[in-house]
UniProtKB/TrEMBL annotation:
It is a multi-pass membrane protein. It comes from the Eukaryota. Residues 309-543 form the ABC transporter domain. InterPro entries: AAA+_ATPase, ABC1_TM_dom, ABC1_TM_sf, ABC_transporter-like_ATP-bd, P-loop_NTPase, Type_1_exporter. The lineage of its organism: Eukaryota, Metazoa, Chordata, Craniata, Vertebrata. The keyword Disulfide bond does not apply. Residues 1-274 form the ABC transmembrane type-1 domain. Keywords: ATP-binding, Membrane, Mitochondrion, Mitochondrion inner membrane, Nucleotide-binding, Transit peptide, Transmembrane, Transmembrane helix. This is ATP binding cassette subfamily B member 10. One of its GO terms (cellular component) is mitochondrial inner membrane. It is found in: Membrane.
Amino acid sequence: MSAPFLLGKVIDTIYATGADTETMAASLTSLCIMLTGVFLCGGAANATRVYLMQISGQRIVRNLRTSIFSSILRQEVAFFDRNRTGELINRLSADTAVVGRSITDNLSDGLRAVAQAAAGVSMMFYVSPSLASFVLLIVPPVAVLAVGYGRYLRSISKRTQDALAQATQLAEERISNMRTVRAFGKELSEVNTYTQKADEVLSLARKEAVLRAGFFGVTGLSGNLMILSVLYKGGLLMASQHMTVGELSSFLMYTFWVGISIAGLSSFYSELMKGFGAGARLWELLDRKPEFPLNEGLVLPPDQLKGQLEFCDVSFAYPTRKEAPIFQNLSLLVPAGTIMAVVGSSGSGKSTLVSMLLRLYDPDAGIINIDGHDIRDLNPYWLRSHIGTVSQEPVLFSCSIRDNIAYGAGDPDAVTTEDIYRAARVANAHDFIQAFPKGFDTIVGEKGVLLSGEGQRQKHSRVMIPSSISLALDAENEFLVQEALERLMEGRSLCLFVIIAHRLSTIQNANAVAVLDQRRVAECGQHTELLSNRQGLFRKLMEKQAFLQEEQKRALC
Ligand SMILES: Nc1ncnc2c1ncn2[C@@H]1O[C@H](COP(=O)(O)OP(=O)(O)OP(=O)(O)O)[C@@H](O)[C@H]1O
């Protein structure tokens, strides 16, 4: 006897024979044994399913996270001007978690619900195709409703994740600039701003809850409608002798079964749509092709790299501020083997010049050449590995000083302790690092300004750009940094230096000085020559500088 009829036949037999208590007991016992068997097997299968889904789910999330992180790190620098740290971190942690949930546990539950529903519906059709067709008339309107609901849920989920990303962005910025927040006594107002952002997330979550409740209500109701229609239509069929009691009872059971599966399916569908919403930005990130290649292009043999640098008619505006050009038709030639100091008032574009040389941004017009090669033809990875920079913002990772110094090397694992000491000595940092109780093993915090890890890397540099020696440094540190730079410049066979400098002592080491003003190189020549021009910009700049330093000194006294 075929399985779908089995249960119906058992009930029919009991009903038709007016079964006595023993027959009833025997039937119930065999039913219990069968159910216990199914229950135990089901338990073991379920446990295996949960375990496997958990493991594979975590693996999916891990793969998603690493692919996204890799995609983020490949993007051009302008991408990071548009997408801020906190937001990206949120994508990496929260969005991937939501997507992970929707495709792991949920997918397994969903597949089970689909299989259960499919089996239930097949049984219904097997027992009575006409009754099944009638009962399932409810499905098309529910399906249409589900599509609309799914779309809306997806958009809400996307908005929720966006709002969450903004909240994380705000928190990240404020926490990482805690000193500024404290200095201005902005703690309470920042808490209020964050609360507003958190409220936005809450109000979207509320909308989602209402939507979900509505949808679950409708699917629950549709299950009940199915049962009512079975009772109504099945009763008619039974009265007209087209259906037996057993068939109707078993049909009813399968309808229950399908009703429960539909509840499972709704939950699966909701989670899936939520995952799609949260995943929208992740797919965008994954699919995004960086505007610049990372490691493609021309690599010059070492003997061909002389170090002549030329900016020809360069015009540039930051992609996020196209309306405010930084350079217009800027031209500058730095012959090989010379040291060029670049000076200019704050905001005149000194750092931008360096960013362009490092090919973090491409000019909107004009060309930047190194030894006659347009830097757009050169391999950016190779180019940067030959340019050493000393940043005015010493960026340190939260690990030991030793690891921070080694980070600058091509292969940090190959760096010896002696290399690290040498780099620290060159950077004038060896003695004060040794003075820490844990020396080079001292753990520095995020942005724990102690020293720059570039010493290592500069060993291999042919072009070097120490950027602004910050005025904010106190007198002693400034002297140490100056001295370190001079030491770096002395003992090396570098072809070209571009120094971005404020101090005359640094500028004096240069063969020529370029003064940036009004989006171009306003003056260029030897520093003595430029200083002798009383009306010249350089002269004015240096006078202002001297005045500021005098002020600073007085403030220190
Ligand atoms: N990533 C960026 N996106 C948009 N604008 C930027 C960006 N970086 C710098 N700017 C703007 O470009 C202009 C030039 O900045 P840049 O940092 O190159 O000047 P600078 O001469 O190095 O200044 P300072 O001496 O103060 O360091 C400034 O108006 C600055 O606000």
